[in-house]
């Protein structure tokens, strides 16, 4: 049984990538076999935690998610500072590929929602190459706002998808899943951020050595300098984590 680490106002589940995929596939089986509740997954990074500090609705959604996987080197460092290291970073793109491979074996159906026009389709093709036999039941760029819900729900319901990968970016993707998962017909929704961009090749991933060293953020910043405003929260995040550790002592 896994445990959760509370980092500032957000609990993060201490799971490995294999455990995360296992929990998701168990949730699909439970939904089909026993009518269990739908299963929302958030891929948490320091930006999520900082946004949750000022957005009560987002904080509640993260609290209510069935699984909050640890994504981001800063989050791993924060957990170590608190004295409760997380077992493994679970990057969204790698979890999606692992999940697609499991789905290919099990027969689970995926739906890709979000991204710029054409990106979800290209990401679907990449998943078919990475996980031969996986069934991508549908793709839709969609609209993250409530005005786009009807079209997305109609497409997802018609596809018979078990898992919806939602790539609207945080917090829009988490808000979408919270509003719609229970009525979508799918068992699982996962907020996957920029995963479709990586899978499609729209954005290059950092070299493996940089990912191992926790420097993927630096590679992304070099490719997308406009991200500096978002990444500027990391030093503040770490200072607040240190404060949490000191106050707890």
Short characterization:
The chain is α/β, with parallel strands linked by helices and 249 residues long. It has helices at 17-34, 46-54, 56-64, 73-81, 92-106, 119-130, 149-159, 172-184, 195-200, 208-212, 216-223, 228-231, 233-248; strands at residues 4-7, 10-13, 39-44, 67-70, 109-114, 135-140, 163-167, 188-191. 54% of the residues lie in helices and 16% in strands.
Low-confidence stretches: none
For the biggest sheet, the summary is: 6 strands, parallel
- E-strand count: 8
Q: Structural class, from helix and strand content?
A: alpha/beta
Give the helix tally: 13
Biggest sheet strand order reads 4-3-8-7-5-6
What pattern of helices and strands is seen along the backbone? EEHEHHEHHEHEHEHEHHHHH
**N-to-C terminal Cα separation, in Å?**
27 Å
Estimate the strand proportion.
Answer: 15-25%
The overall pLDDT average reads: 91
Could you tell me the radius of gyration in angstroms?
17 Å
Give the overall silhouette.
globular
Q: Residue share in helices?
A: 40-55%
What are the key terms here?
6-stranded parallel sheet; 16% strand; globular; alpha/beta; two-stranded antiparallel ribbon; 8 strands; 249 residues
Q: In words, what does this structure look like?
A:
The chain is built from 13 helices and 8 strands. It has helices at 17-34, 46-54, 56-64, 73-81, 92-106, 119-130, 149-159, 172-184, 195-200, 208-212, 216-223, 228-231, 233-248; strands at residues 4-7, 10-13, 39-44, 67-70, 109-114, 135-140, 163-167, 188-191. Strands 4-3-8-7-5-6 form a 6-stranded parallel beta sheet, sandwiched between helices. The protein is globular.
